[in-house]
Amino acid sequence: MTRGDGSFVSSCVKQDDTKEPSPCVLVVLLMKDKINNIANVVVPLAFVSFLLVIWEYTVRWRSIPDWILPGPLQIARTFAENAPMLTKHAQTTLTECLAGFAIAIAFSFVIAFLMDELPLVKKAIYPLVIASQTIPIVSVAPLFIIWFGYGILPKIIVVVLVCFFPIAISLLGGLAAVDKDYLELFRSMQATRLNIFRMVKLPLALPSFFSGLKISAAYSVMGAVIGEWLGAKQGLGGLGAYMTLAQRSFQVDRVFAAILAVTVCSAALFALVCLIEKITIPWNRLS
Amino acid sequence: MPEIVVEGVKKTLGGLLTLGDINIKAKDGAFAGILGPSGCGKSTLFNIISGLMQPDAGHVFIDGRDVTGRTGRVSYMRQKDLLLPSLNVLDNVSIPLVLKGWPKKKARAEAEKHLGRFGLAGFQGYYPGQLSGGMRQRAAMLRTYLFSSDILLLDEPFASLDAITKRQMHAWLIDVFYQIRPTVMFITHDVDEALYLCDKVYVLSECPTVVNLEIDVPFCRPQHGRTIVDPEYSAIRDAIMEALAI
Ligand SMILES: Nc1ncnc2c1ncn2[C@@H]1O[C@H](COP(=O)(O)OP(=O)(O)O)[C@@H](O)[C@H]1O
Ligand SMILES: [Mg+2]
Questions:
Q1: What is the dihedral sign for C-alpha B86, B90, B91, B93?
Q2: What is the pLDDT of residues A32-84, one digit of tens each?
Q3: How far apart (Å, rounded) are the C-alpha atoms in residues A159 and B198?
Q4: What is the pLDDT of residue B244?
Q5: Is B123 helix (H, G, I), strand (E, B) or coil?
Q6: What is the CA radius of gyration of chain B?
Q7: What is d(CA A67, CA A74) in angstroms, rounded to the nearest whole number?
Q8: Ligand 1 contact, B43 CB (< 6 A)
Q9: Domain A72-286, what fold?
Q10: What is the biggest distance separating any 2 CA atoms in chain B, rounded to whole angstroms?
Q11: CB-nearest partner of B127 from A185, A204, A286
C-alpha cells in the first residue's frame, strides 16, 4: 500500500517535470530565443562595423587624400552637414520613383491581364517584354532627354523601363502557375472569365507579384538616379544630379553621402512594399 | 428527379482511347461507387458528367434531360480541397451562390445555415490555412453541396486524409447522407471505403476503360463504426478484387 502510494507520487512528480518545464528551464529557453534574436542583429552590425573600421584605418594609415577616398567618419560628417540639401534632392528622386513605379504597376497589370487571357497577345508581346529588359538603360536615357527635354518625364520613363520587367514577369508567372484544377472547378460552377480572374487568379498570383514588386522597389531608385545623372546640368536636381555635380568637382565625400542617401531611399521603398504586402495578403501570416 | 445516367460514353485523350464504353447509373437517392485503377479515366468521367468535357460519343442525362457537354447542373469535389486561401470559410463556401448571382449578404446568410451540419460552426471567419485537412474537405464538400444540393459528385474526397480522420469523415458523411438524401457518385480506389459507403459499386477496367463489374452492396452504411461482419462481405470483396485483377 505504502509502496504503491510512493510510486504514484513519484510518477506524478516525474510527469510534472517532463510536461511543464520548471521556471528555470523556461528562463533558459526564453534567453535562448532572445540570444538568437540579438545575434541576428548583432552579427551583421558587427561585421559592417568591422569593415568600416578597416576602411577608416586604411585611409588614415595610408593618408589617402579626401578627393580620392574619404573615410567613413568624413562621409558621415558630410552627410550630416548636407542633410537638408540631400533631403530636398531625395524628395525629387522619390517623386520620380513613385510615379514611375505606379505607372509600371498599372502597365504590368494591363499587359499581364491581356497576355493571360489572350494567347495570341502573349505570343506577340512576350518577346517584346523580354527585349525591354535587354535595353541598356544608359544608352537610351540620353535619347529620352533629347525627345522629352530636361523635365521629370524622361526620368519617370527610365524608372518605368527598369521596374516594368520584374513586375510584369512575376505577375505573369503567378497567373500562369495557378493550379488548373481551380480553373476547372470554377468553370464547372459557371464562373465568367472576369470572375475567374478576379476571384481566383489574381489572389493566387499576389505572392509572386509582390516578389517582383520588391525587386523593382530596390531597382527603381537606381533607375531615377541614372535618369538624373544623364541630365544633371539643366535638370530638376535629384540625388543623381547632386552626385554627378559633386563628382565633377572631386567632392568624393559628397558622392558617398549621396550614395548613402540612395541606399536609404531604396531600403525605405523596399520596406514600404513589404508593409503593403503584409496588409494585402493577410492570409499568408495565418497558416 | 436527381438521377444520373451515363450512356455509352467514349473519350479519346491524347490519342489513347481512355473511356471505351461507359454505362453507369445513379438512381435518385443512391450512393454509387466507382472503383478503378489509377489513370483509367475516373476523373475524366466526372469532367464529362459535369459538362467540362465533351465525350466523343454517348450521352449524359441528369433528371432525364440531356446535359452532355453543358456545365451548370452539377459541380464536383476533388481530392484537393481547392479552397481559395484569400477568403475565409464562409466566403469560400458561398462562392457557388455568388456565382449564381445571389447578393453577397444573402449568399453568406444561406451558407451560414449549413455550417453546423458540415461541422464548421464557429469557423466561418477562419482562413483555409488555419483549418485541419478534414475540415478543409468538409468545407469543400459544403461548397459542392451549395452548387447542387441534390447531386454530389465526389472524386476521391478523402484520399489525402490519414486513416483515423478518414474514418471519422466516413461516419460523418453517412450521417449527413441520411439528413439530406442526395444522389451521390463516389470515386475511390479504396475497396473497403467503397463497401462501407456505397450501395452500388461499379468496377472499371484498365484503358480502354469499360465497366468490369456492377455489384449491389446490401450491408453498406452501418449504424456502428465497427468492422462489417456480414457473411456476404468477403464474397463481395473478393468479387471486386477479382474484377480489379488484384
Ligand atoms: N486533358 C487531357 N489530355 C490528355 N490526356 C489526359 C487529359 N486528362 C487526362 N488525361 C489522361 O487520361 C488518363 C485518365 O486520367 P484521369 O481521368 O485523371 O484518371 P483517374 O482519375 O482514373 O486516375 C490519364 O492517363 C491521363 O494522363
Ligand atoms: Mg483522378
A1: positive
A2: 778 888 888 889 899 999 999 999 999 999 888 888 899 999 999 999 999 99
A3: 63
A4: 86
A5: coil
A6: 18
A7: 11
A8: yes
A9: MetI-like fold (1.10.3720)
A10: 53
A11: A286
Residues B217/B195, Cβ–Cβ less than 8 Å: yes
Question: Does B124 contact chain A (CB < 8 Å)?
Answer: no
**Ligand 1 contact via B42 beta carbon (within 6 Å):** yes
Q: How far apart are CA B48 and CA B11, in angstroms?
A: 9
Taking only the tens place, the pLDDT of each residue in B171-218 is: 999 988 988 899 999 999 899 899 989 999 999 999 899 999 899 888
Grid cell digits, residue A233: 546640368
- Please indicate if any CB of chain A lies within 8 Å of the CB of B234: no
Which residue has cell 552637414?
Answer: A81
- Whole-structure pTM value: 0.82
B139 and B120 in contact (C-beta within 8 Å)? yes
Rounded to whole angstroms, how far apart are CA atoms A183 and B186? Answer: 22
**Cα dihedral value A177, A180, A186, A190, nearest 10:** 120
| Cα separation, B96 vs B102, whole angstroms | 9
Q: Which domains does chain B have, with CATH numbers?
A: 1-74+150-246 (3.40.50.300), 81-147 (no CATH)
Whether chain A has a CB inside 8 Å of the CB on B129: the answer is yes
pLDDT at res. A8: 41
Quote the minimal CA–CA distance from A102 to chain B in Å: 24
Whole-complex ipTM: 0.91
Identify residue B121 by its one-letter amino acid code.
A
Residue type, A96: E
How confident is residue B231, by pLDDT bands cut at 50, 70 and 90?
Answer: confident
Span from the CA of B66 to the centroid of ligand 2 (angstroms): 24
Tell me the nearest-neighbour CA distance from B240 into chain A, angstroms.
30
A89 CB contacts (<8 Å, ≥6 apart)? Answer: A237, A238, A239, A241, A242, A258, A261
